[in-house]
Amino acid sequence: MAKATKTNKTGASKLHSTKNPISENIRGSMVELLQTHLATSIDITYQTKQAHWNVKGMNFIAVHELFDDLHEVVEDYVDKIAERLTALGGQAHGTVQASAGNTILEPYPLDLVKSEDHLRRLADSYSAWSKAAQEGIEEASEAGDALTEDLLTEVARGLDKSIYFLESHFQS
Ligand SMILES: [Fe+2]
């Protein structure tokens, strides 16, 4: 069984030993990259549920159900990102408390009610994560990790589709 990871002087985590063919150096940087995306995926999962639970308005049932559909999409990414990270020998920091310190997203306001406010605010979060995911695609490509690049491409494509679903409610 692999040893538990420890944090070294630079704050980066040591990797578990693995037969994964990617070099340790690249695996280390990809684990660090994916750790940020894991935290962000967990954050956005509950931002979307926050909207699902609290939204009110004449189009209640449509947006209530839309937010649940979007939640299912991002929840799938949480697992895929965590398992790519562990496949690379990393230790997933997948708790809500760890995620709170590592997410790239601004805190979601707890007092939003109107459907348009939730739609616009979620579009901001999905857009911020999409931008980071697209930067991650480039980073993974430059590192030569085609599988992490492919995963982040899937994530970014899904996020952009969700942005379209959200924005179509208020675009003129
Ligand atoms: Fe529900």
Automatic annotation (TrEMBL):
Residues 32-171 form the Ferritin/DPS domain. Residues 1-20 are annotated as: Disordered. Signal peptide: none annotated. Residues 1-11 have a biased composition (Polar residues). InterPro entries: DPS_DNA-bd, DPS_DNA-bd_CS, Ferritin-like, Ferritin-like_SF, Ferritin_DPS_dom. NCBIfam families: PRK09448.1. Belongs to the Dps family. This is DNA starvation/stationary phase protection protein Dps. It comes from Jiella sonneratiae.
